[in-house]
Specification:
Order of helices and strands: EHHHEEEHEHEE
CATH class: Alpha Beta
CATH superfamily: Gcn5-related N-acetyltransferase (GNAT)
Strand order of the largest sheet: 1-2-3-4-5-7-6
Number of domains: 1
Number of strands: 7
Number of helices: 5
Structural class: alpha+beta
Helix content: 25-40%
Distance between the termini: 32 Å
Largest sheet: 7 strands, mixed
CATH architecture: 3-Layer(aba) Sandwich
Low-confidence stretches: none
Length: 172
């Protein structure tokens, strides 16, 4: 099976929006109220916002395809595009999502490898991410990839204050 990881172009923002909404809802809708989900996605996933993010030179987006089918995406940030200042010389994995139809095929690991490759290319010494404390499958995945919990912060899903763990991996 052919797997490709390719940069997302600004002209593909609508495709990214559709995939973002689908994967976010698949991941979090069972554990959050419809009202809080709608409040969050209506702000976080707007076409013009995604277009601005895609145009930011300090953010990189990638689609992953398997057998020419869109299966997921990755977003990484450096410098001021990072959502927080966690470590010096760091790269943030802001989003790493695989469509539910393609889970269990190792695609998340390939996207993680792509993020680490970018970190090495950009000579970053730390890779970090935020993950919801209740997203146990993701936490387990990140731990298997060598990430360790280094802190936490609040994350607002609508009017629900939730806790995200900050996990980081130091690169040698």
């Amino acid at each position: 099976m052919t797997i490709q990881i390719v940069p997302i172009q600004t002209s593909q923002a609508a495709t990214l929006l559709d995939l973002s909404l689908r994967t976010f809802n698949d991941t979090f809708s069972d554990q959050n109220t419809p009202e809080n989900m709608e409040a969050y996605v209506s702000e976080a996933f707007q076409l013009n916002k995604l277009e601005k993010e895609l145009a930011n030179p300090d953010s990189n987006f990638f689609f992953i395809y398997t057998a020419d089918q869109l299966a997921g995406y990755l977003k990484v940030n450096i410098n001021d595009a990072q959502t927080e200042d966690i470590a010096e010389n760091a790269l943030e994995i802001e989003r790493i999502y695989v469509d539910s139809a393609f889970k269990g095929q190792g695609l998340g690991k390939l996207l993680m490898e792509k993020a680490l490759e970018i970190a090495n290319e950009k000579k970053r010494t730390t890779v970090w991410l935020g993950v919801w404390e209740k997203n146990l499958p993701a936490i387990g995945f990140y731990q298997k990839q060598g990430f360790k919990k280094v802190g936490q912060h609040s994350f607002w899903m609508g009017d629900d204050e939730q806790t995200d763990f900050i996990m980081a991996k130091v690169l040698l």
